[in-house]
Automatic annotation (TrEMBL):
CDD domains: Radical_SAM. The keyword Transmembrane does not apply. It comes from Desulfosporosinus meridiei (strain ATCC BAA-275 / DSM 13257 / KCTC 12902 / NCIMB 13706 / S10). The lineage of its organism: Bacteria, Bacillati, Bacillota, Clostridia, Eubacteriales. This is Probable dual-specificity RNA methyltransferase RlmN. Reaction proceeds by a ping-pong mechanism involving intermediate methylation of a conserved cysteine residue. Its EC number is 2.1.1.192. It catalyses: adenosine(2503) in 23S rRNA + 2 reduced [2Fe-2S]-[ferredoxin] + 2 S-adenosyl-L-methionine = 2-methyladenosine(2503) in 23S rRNA + 5'-deoxyadenosine + L-methionine + 2 oxidized [2Fe-2S]-[ferredoxin] + S-adenosyl-L-homocysteine; adenosine(37) in tRNA + 2 reduced [2Fe-2S]-[ferredoxin] + 2 S-adenosyl-L-methionine = 2-methyladenosine(37) in tRNA + 5'-deoxyadenosine + L-methionine + 2 oxidized [2Fe-2S]-[ferredoxin] + S-adenosyl-L-homocysteine. It comes from the Bacteria. S-adenosyl-L-methionine binds at residues 169-170, 201, 224-226, 299. It is found in: Cytoplasm. GO terms for molecular function: 4 iron, 4 sulfur cluster binding; metal ion binding; rRNA (adenine(2503)-C2-)-methyltransferase activity; rRNA binding; tRNA (adenine(37)-C2)-methyltransferase activity; tRNA binding.
């Protein structure tokens, strides 16, 4: 009998399992709290459940913990982790510690949802290595739990406040496991992270955008837009050939109609695509859409050949959008000194950066 991954179980799933194997309901609640609140990594770490009950549980459930291979720390408080999975594959995730800034008590973890990525965006290091497999809900949740436990050894009061699903991989292509991980992380007996404090980022998987609106109207949505015309976006995001801008923007309008929530549109700015004409085209595309534009100076990544624009270009680009009535901000750079772009640490570890 194949064992179930314990860290991917909801409280109700554990209750159902306990009832099937003859254990009381309260045991399931205790177990869920140990796993999700206290982030234990083994059966030996659980103290208030009898050894006989733990042995019974271990016959049906499996701890899928991560092995920290490497950690990088930025001067701004950002930490980047490389974790090895049980099958030997590696993934990255990033802690963005905004609590160092005055009046901003926020700790955001950016998690991966796939090993590699099948989308192959032109500016992303992850896609350069291709796609291996989807992560399970347990492997997604484990990134949050293991980073929390790691930092709590230094700061016992540390708590994750926000989660963004925009690390390695396309979350919408692993939709079911991503949604399950969100629901588990939201549960009151676990980390109790609010739905509105979690955001899924997509390169534009149109059917899943609409499904997300219908399945869960509270989770935030970010769309990697990056260009306002199909010919340019085809080169930057191959997904656009399957779901062109006309279909993507219609899905975004439908999402906002159902949820009444604004979408964050991510725009990676390079030295080449940061001209006022591009900003004007973007303003026309987003006219009437409930949303906010987040400008992201592209991270320098070996193998992409892309360079970031000057600060002057970024300011002018933003001004064009503001003048057109589009809400806009420029992403605060985090972890640039430790190569915080998705996939960079993994490629470096595997010896593929020169």
């Amino acid at each position: 009998m194949e064992k179930i991954e314990l860290r991917g179980c909801s409280e109700n799933e554990l209750i159902e399992i306990c009832q099937k194997i003859g254990l009381k309901r309260f045991r399931a609640i205790q177990l869920f709290q140990w796993v999700q609140q206290k982030a234990v990594r083994s059966w030996a770490d659980i103290k208030n459940i009898s050894k006989s009950d733990l042995e019974t549980l271990s016959n049906h459930l499996h701890f899928s913990v991560l092995n920290k291979v490497r950690e990088q720390r930025s001067k701004d408080g950002t930490r980047k982790y490389l974790f090895r999975l049980e099958d030997g594959e590696t993934i990255e995730c990033v802690l963005m510690d905004y609590a160092r800034l005055k009046a901003r008590d926020r700790h955001t973890i950016c998690v991966s949802t796939q090993v590699g990525c099948p989308v192959g965006c032109a500016f992303c290091a992850t896609g350069l290595e291709g796609f291996k497999r989807n992560l399970s809900a347990a492997e997604i949740i484990s990134q949050v739990l293991d980073i929390s436990q790691d930092i709590q050894q230094e700061d016992p009061d540390f708590q994750v406040t926000n989660i963004v699903f925009m690390g390695m991989g396309e979350p919408m292509l692993n939709y079911d496991q991503v949604l399950k991980s969100i629901r588990v992380l939201n549960q009151a007996q676990g980390l109790n992270i609010g739905m509105r404090r979690m955001t899924i980022s997509t390169s534009g998987v149109v059917p899943k955008i609409i499904q997300l609106a219908k399945d869960n109207s509270q989770v935030g949505l970010a769309v990697s837009l990056h260009a306002a015309d199909d010919s340019t976006r085809d080169k930057l995001i191959p997904m656009n050939r399957r779901y062109p801008l006309s279909e993507l923007m219609e899905a975004c309008r439908e999402y906002s109609r159902i949820t009444h929530r604004r979408i964050t549109f991510e725009v990676a700015l390079t030295a080449d695509n940061s001209k006022p004409a591009e900003a004007e085209a973007l303003a026309r595309l987003l006219k009437g859409q409930l949303g906010h534009v987040n400008l992201i100076p592209v991270n320098p990544v070996v193998g992409t050949g892309m360079e970031r624009p000057s600060q002057e270009k970024i300011v002018k680009f933003a001004q064009v959008l503001e003048d057109a009535g589009i809400s806009v901000s420029s992403r605060e750079e985090r972890g640039t000194d430790i190569d915080a772009a998705c996939g960079q640490l993994r490629r470096q570890w595997e010896g593929k950066l020169v």
